[in-house]
């Protein structure tokens, strides 16, 4: 139960490059409009226009400078939303008159006519496939077009990529620590940074390897499987089994009816007290909890999963759950399990598991020992790791706050830098070398070694011959003269493809479905050596430039930097 | 310039309680629908319905347990969006059929008819005024209504309040450190957690005391003043003054025209080299930067604010800026200032100020020494504090990432707990005392002392007589027996008012405008003793319960907790 039927996720998958491409839906969040940008993009547009430079052909790179979470990799996400945005980019009359109010009254009318005519038919976007593993300095996207138009895209693109990539990476990291066999549930909507902080997190956590979400809106929008049963409030809203009026339950196969499921449960509760292992563990269990569990089971006999920590896990929650589960078992239903939402999850899960095994053995209920245990209290990478080290019996983790707000690092620093204008390479200098941009319209490649693992990414100028398999290639650190290495790749993959050709006569990459992107992501993560992936002291993955590009960067740097005079 | 005309912010302000209230607009983000909730709210709704309990009258409190950012106060925000949400709460047919797919196929049809008929006409919401200073455990909102309906509101309410309150508090903390006289600009859209992470942050940072935003969408939606000029890319998109073709500038008063503003600027640049203080500081300044500054000044002669760190602040950015500013001055325009976006902001701002003063003195340009300095590189509370201690000449701070993502603590832990059902008080226990809920439908009051400062908040049962001015009141810590104090308040303020009466015959509080909320917030912050507000070791503000409520909490606690048996 609770898996939503995947619906159309609004993505476009035209399947065939030669057919005319159909219209691409607008961004998921209708608030993503051309006004979702910084004012300075409009003031610059005016200044470019006034200088007659607005149609200068500019190339910008979108990239980040450091992997998040102290790690050595990042997952790229948010591309589909960017493409949806530019495919529908058009300022409305109302938006233009708002911009006019914001700019100076001296701005010329003709500029606003120009703004009204802007679209992205003259913009080209190359990008790495969404869901790919990516690294600092290597462009995630290369955006080329009239400088004034491309500048207007900067803020929304960076906004759409930053959080998407950050939270996808966070999800992938949680998956890495949890291992492949655990069920990972995203429960973060209530603690997310606003409504689509929540919706976005649900989508991108699924992309990064989670199995399901609690967020119904995300389930509907993106076809993500949904999970959820009940809360503490449900438990405490009951007073006791007396208030249950409709007590009958039909057996799963429809062959018989139990007229008093409450009594059946009470009978089992009594038997549980007699188990050798229960002695002294519990006396009277909490009656409102018992009533809540029975009611939930009567409503969802096929999906009985109980939150067992409202009063006391071992003295009340577990015995109450087991009594209801055993009564359900009598009627042919298999209980789904328990959820622990507080306390020592390692200890409690082991104790619960022991009790389930005792029941299986002493009461001869086949399979009872394997009943599911979900844990969900303020989990993060660290606590998952600690639980693994300590030993636990949890099958499924519900993770909220730390996952969706990326608590340990809530922002990724994607930037959008001019690298070429009118075929002139441009560089942005900085006292901080890590902030110097890599100039030129570039291509980038991932070189794979014999064992199928990625070895190094290399950027080169657009017109350089691409690296070839089996060929010896010099890979240079972009800024550190002494760091360089020869690589003979077994396989070469070009990283960026054309996702938006504008009016250029080029094929456009399809926008894959969320499910396809998720699979791509899982495959990409497997092609990384685990020493790059581990939590503690991961090995940095190498990012390099071609020898030719290296020379050019340093030529341009010297050319642009003012020469100081020592005093 | 750049201040947007405040538009209708969509808020409702009926002004008069006796008139029929007009319709309330839906939530700002159209993605905020009844499906923006956790699946378990629907499974519980079904279980309540199946048990015939769905109309049980429940009271829930929405509150948080700990102030964020290591502080001792929080600003409450997000209320308007919650009211907009319930005022328009209605599941569409499409939404209901999605819920049906997600629940078990055994769920009865009549439930979905029931869902289709749900609205919030039978729900009552009491809340503290938006923009108020609030404290842990004291309900921010009290929501009463049919249990199944109120549960459906839990996730969206908590989502809408959590980030709003968190980021408003963060803004208020930044304002506290920056001081009243600095201009604070929110520049976070690109790094925010998704599109309405950005829009929400802009709105709530303004509420918490910022002066303006760079986010055009927020400017349009909420009438927040907008700021922004140009980026590094604008600077590096130029090659040199030669490419400027339209060089004329009319004087501010329209009386004359300078036919070659480029030459005028070059003349001033030359003069600057001759200043005593420039000797050896700069030689040839960067030509693309100079061209960019001139072009920006020609486009916005009335609003010339230049980003001066693309190449080298002291050797290039500042002299280029000053040359353009002096040329503008010749034409009757006053330059706005510079922006520093890297490096040692304290040092650079002081050096820039010195240079401006030299120009004022040596070139006799009145007021030049006071030219504005904006700083904007990865600022946060700590760096503002460090700058203050070090001494700086910055007039205006642009703050992005750390502000809008609440980097130092990206989530607030608001919860939504059942405190009463069918007039029966309910409690949620926990091994962790701080997680025990305070039962009963309550009222709460803020008691003020002689100097006008808030002394303590006190919660009491709904039917207790409220505390009175001048009367001696016993305030007890809710869980710690030994912590209690008598207070004689000078002034008593009831904290919660009715913002949504449902169909009850009660007056509804107006929803104030953003501007009004901001003012209320500023006043509230002033009524707090500064020892509660300081960054280091702030004094906790006291939150208490009445003697009667204290007794009742502990009676119920003993009643619900299972009695252990030591083994």
From TrEMBL, chains A, B:
Residues 35-162 form the Nicotinate phosphoribosyltransferase N-terminal domain. Residues 336-437 form the Nicotinate/nicotinamide phosphoribosyltransferase domain. Transiently phosphorylated on a His residue during the reaction cycle. Phosphorylation strongly increases the affinity for substrates and increases the rate of nicotinate D-ribonucleotide production. Dephosphorylation regenerates the low-affinity form of the enzyme, leading to product release. It is an enzyme of class 6 (ligase). It holds the Pfam family NAPRTase_C. It catalyses: 5-phospho-alpha-D-ribose 1-diphosphate + nicotinate + ATP + H2O = nicotinate beta-D-ribonucleotide + ADP + phosphate + diphosphate. Residues 1-29 are annotated as: Disordered. GO terms for molecular function: glycosyltransferase activity; metal ion binding; nicotinate phosphoribosyltransferase activity. Its EC number is 6.3.4.21. InterPro entries: Aldolase_TIM, N/Namide_PRibTrfase, NAPRTase_C, NAPRTase_N, Nic_PRibTrfase-Fam, Nic_PRibTrfase_pncB, Nicotinate_pribotase-like_C. GO terms for biological process: NAD+ biosynthetic process via the salvage pathway. CDD domains: NAPRTase_A (cd01570). Residues 441-552 form the Nicotinate phosphoribosyltransferase C-terminal domain. GO terms for cellular component: cytosol. The keyword Transmembrane does not apply. Keywords: Glycosyltransferase, Ligase, Magnesium, Manganese, Metal-binding, Phosphoprotein, Pyridine nucleotide biosynthesis, Transferase. Its cofactor is Mg(2+); Mn(2+). Residues 1-19 have a biased composition (Polar residues). Pathway: Cofactor biosynthesis; NAD(+) biosynthesis; nicotinate D-ribonucleotide from nicotinate: step 1/1. Catalyzes the first step in the biosynthesis of NAD from nicotinic acid, the ATP-dependent synthesis of beta-nicotinate D-ribonucleotide from nicotinate and 5-phospho-D-ribose 1-phosphate. Helps prevent cellular oxidative stress via its role in NAD biosynthesis. Belongs to the NAPRTase family. PANTHER family: NICOTINATE PHOSPHORIBOSYLTRANSFERASE. This is Nicotinate phosphoribosyltransferase.
């Amino acid at each position: 139960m609770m898996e939503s039927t995947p619906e159309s996720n609004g993505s476009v998958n035209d399947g065939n490059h030669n057919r005319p491409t159909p219209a691409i839906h607008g961004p998921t969040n209708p608030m993503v409009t051309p006004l979702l940008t910084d004012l300075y993009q409009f003031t610059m547009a005016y200044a470019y226009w006034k200088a007659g430079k607005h149609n200068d052909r500019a190339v910008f790179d979108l990239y980040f400078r450091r992997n998040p979470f102290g790690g050595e990799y990042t997952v790229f996400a948010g591309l589909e939303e960017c493409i949806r945005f530019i495919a529908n980019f058009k300022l409305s009359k109302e938006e233009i008159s708002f911009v006019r109010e914001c700019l100076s009254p001296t701005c010329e009318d003709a500029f606003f006519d120009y703004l009204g005519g802007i679209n992205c038919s003259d913009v080209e976007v190359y990008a790495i496939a969404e869901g790919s593993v990516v690294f600092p300095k290597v462009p995630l996207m290369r955006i080329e077009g009239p400088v004034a138009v491309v500048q207007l895209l900067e803020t929304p693109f960076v906004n759409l990529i930053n959080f998407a990539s950050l939270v996808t990476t966070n999800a992938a990291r949680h998956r890495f620590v949890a291992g492949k066999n655990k069920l990972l549930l995203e429960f973060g909507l209530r603690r997310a940074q606003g409504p689509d902080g929540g919706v976005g997190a649900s989508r991108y956590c699924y992309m990064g390897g989670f199995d399901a979400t609690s967020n119904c809106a995300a389930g509907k929008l993106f076809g993500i499987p949904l999970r959820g049963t009940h809360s503490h409030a449900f438990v405490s809203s009951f007073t006791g089994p007396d208030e249950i009026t409709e007590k009958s339950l039909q057996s799963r196969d429809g062959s018989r009816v139990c007229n008093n499921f409450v009594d059946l449960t009470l009978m089992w509760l009594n038997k549980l007290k007699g188990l050798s292992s229960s002695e002294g563990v519990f006396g009277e269990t909490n009656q409102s909890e018992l009533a809540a569990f029975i009611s939930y089971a009567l409503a969802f006999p096929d999906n009985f999963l109980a939150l067992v920590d409202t009063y006391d896990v071992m003295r009340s929650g577990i015995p109450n759950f087991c009594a209801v589960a055993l009564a359900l078992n009598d009627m042919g239903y298999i209980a789904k399990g328990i959820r622990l939402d507080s306390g020592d999850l390692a200890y409690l899960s082991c104790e619960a598991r022991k009790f389930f095994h005792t029941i299986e053995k002493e009461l001869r209920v086949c399979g009872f020992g394997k009943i599911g245990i979900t844990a969900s209290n303020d989990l993060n990478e660290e606590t998952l790791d600690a639980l693994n080290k300590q030993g636990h019996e949890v099958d499924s983790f519900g993770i909220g706050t730390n996952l969706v707000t990326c608590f340990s690092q809530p922002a990724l620093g994607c930037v959008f830098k001019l690298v070429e204008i009118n075929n002139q390479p441009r560089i942005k200098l900085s006292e901080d070398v890590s902030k110097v941009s890599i100039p030129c319209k570039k291509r980038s490649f991932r070189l794979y070694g014999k064992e199928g693992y990625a070895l190094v990414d290399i950027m080169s100028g657009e017109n350089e011959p691409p690296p070839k398999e089996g060929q010896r290639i010099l890979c240079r650190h972009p800024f550190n003269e002494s760091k360089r290495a020869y690589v003979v790749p077994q396989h070469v993959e070009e990283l960026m493809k054309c996702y938006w050709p504008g009016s250029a006569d080029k094929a456009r990459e399809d926008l894959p479905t969320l499910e396809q992107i998720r699979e791509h992501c899982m495959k990409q993560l497997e092609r990384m050596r685990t020493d790059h992936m581990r939590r503690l002291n991961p090995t940095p993955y190498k990012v390099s430039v071609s020898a030719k590009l290296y020379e050019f960067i340093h030529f341009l740097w010297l050319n642009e930097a003012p020469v100081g005079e020592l005093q």
